[in-house]
Design the sequence.
């Protein structure tokens, strides 16, 4: 049986609505004392909220989340240091930077994917700083992994070009079936951002409206 205080928390969460999707059951409240905003964890990216995956596991809404204080970029190359696509000129929720070299810029979803794949080898992709960079990313809501880098595991399992190629949603809606995959659109396959061992079509129910990443039930 659940303890009385746990049941009380569940009952209270059932009454609160998520300020992002407006549906009830929002169990996460902004840590700012005066703020009453609540949200679902899967809605956090769309609402530009931050959850810190260390210590007290604090969560913040878009208004009260921690923000990076970086100097203007020395160069005018507004590209992501990871995917090489364009990034915003200014630091924002979606555009982040390295506090050590002050030069590296990257998309939030790119650095989150790098963090999960790098594991204990996670560091700035430009200056290779680890300690300062890692603490900054933790503070900004990037979730780290304590396992070995995924590329080391991939070498043990098999060739790195063997990519998961089917939808693992509980109910797959694709007319072509679970193994039908397209390069873009509703039947594009998104792999689990943590293990890359399972995937799901963008249009299938379990993915929802997330613009960033998806994780399988195992992870």
Sequence:
């Amino acid at each position: 049986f659940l303890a009385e205080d746990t049941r009380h928390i569940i009952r209270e969460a059932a009454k609160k609505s998520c300020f992002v999707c407006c549906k009830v059951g929002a169990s996460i409240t902004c840590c700012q004392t005066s703020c009453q905003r609540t949200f679902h964890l899967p809605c956090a990216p769309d609402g530009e909220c931050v959850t810190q995956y260390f210590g007290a596991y604090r969560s913040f809404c878009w208004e009260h989340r921690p923000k990076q204080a970086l100097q203007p970029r020395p160069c005018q190359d507004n590209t992501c240091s990871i995917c090489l696509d364009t990034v915003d000129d200014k630091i924002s929720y979606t555009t982040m930077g390295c506090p050590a070299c002050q030069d590296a810029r990257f998309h939030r979803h790119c650095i989150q994917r790098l963090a999960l794949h790098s594991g204990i080898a996670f560091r700035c992709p430009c200056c290779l700083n680890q300690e300062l960079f890692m603490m900054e990313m933790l503070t900004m809501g990037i979730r780290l992994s304590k396992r070995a880098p995924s590329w080391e595991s991939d070498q043990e399992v098999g060739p790195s070009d063997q990519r998961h190629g089917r939808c693992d949603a509980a109910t797959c809606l694709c007319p072509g079936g679970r193994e039908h995959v397209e390069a873009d659109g509703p039947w594009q396959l998104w792999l689990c951002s943590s293990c890359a061992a399972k995937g799901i079509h963008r249009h299938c129910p379990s993915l929802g409206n997330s613009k960033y990443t998806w994780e399988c039930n195992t992870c």
User: Anything to note?
Assistant: Residues 10-60 form a domain with the Herpes Virus-1 fold (CATH 3.30.40.10). Residues 123 and 134 are 7 Å apart (CA to CA). The longest helix spans residues 4-15.
